[in-house]
Write a structure and sequence with these properties.
about 90 residues, about 80% helix
Length: about 90
Amino acid sequence: MSGFIVWIIVGGIAGFLASKVLTGKGMGLIWDIVVGILGGFLGGWLAGLVGIAVSNLLIEIVVAFVGAAILLVVFRALTHRGILHT
């Protein structure tokens, strides 16, 4: 259970930072956490592909930030082109 809480905290931090860097404003607490957690999985997978060991909290945040930033770029590209725009 404590690992899940850590992932939520790390995800929230990473998602918040990525949305601030890319959009200048957050998407809201829940979406920042969701993007951060999904970004953590994406970033962890990408880190594993290039051989980067995710061994401490700072590296986890950086990896989640990179993954969240990638997700936000893809999301923005899809929505700005009208593919997901309603």
